[in-house]
Amino acid sequence: MTESLFGSNLVAMVTPMEPGGALNEPGLARLVDHLLTTGCDGIVVGGTTGESPTLTDTEAALLVRTVAARTGNRARVVAGVGTYDTTACIRRAHEAQAAGADALLLVCPYYSKPTQAGIVAHCLAVADATELPVMLYDVPARTGTAMEAATLLELARHPRIRAVKDAKGDLFEAMSVMAGSPLAYYCGIDELNLPYLAAGATGLVSVVGNAFADRNAQLISAVRGGDLDTARVLNAALHPLTEAIMRTSQGAIMAKAALAELGIIPHATVRLPLLESPPDHLRRLTEALAPLVAGLVPA
To answer: Which of 197, 259, 266, 287 could join 223 in a cystine, given CB atoms 3.0 to 4.6 angstroms apart?
Structure first.
């Protein structure tokens, strides 16, 4: 594992909102401070966990500008700019660069189901649009189309396409692409953080890290130090929270609920078509948070 332009302990940040759905800028500032003090060295702004499909261009740029100003040089700011419209992605990439982003996160075009050649053309067009490094986001469960290994290897030839956020979950393919290219790999599935790190991933882009980025930092450090026994203990300690956030309903919904319960953001508001957590989901979340908050599990 090597250091990267993007950091290693990244968080896919939620977008704090008021009960009516407007952006909550004070909550955003508190959340950024929380992420920085808990060991996050990269913040993904306006990604799927940030409810990107519901953000306007103005809101997306405001988020990047606010987070970049708040972080200074303490963390990389990675702006989500991916849509199914190449022209819109290029516009958002320009706006993200102007707002102070350090890098771009580019999801495989969704819903349209382009061919692999179309995916390559789309990604190259966006990578050519700015001087920022690009992290590709491969998440076929959401997009309907996977980035095949040959596609990733072809895209790796572009000087600004430098990394992959892998939410495909095919670890053997990931290791093959890591072995055959200079791409930095990031685990984008919290449930598989440990095996990806053990297989050579550069770092994590975590939803659970909204609440406990410090635990992810410890996990990364343990694996890098070759202490897999400690890494397994740390991973097991986070397992109940990972299950509550990632396997109960939906990551953005549950991450916001966790942050609200921890008092980091004032509201767990999400925008339609998402809905806030029902009581039974919140009970599961509270049970998972309790031992971590009380310090009853290894840290």
So the answer is: 197
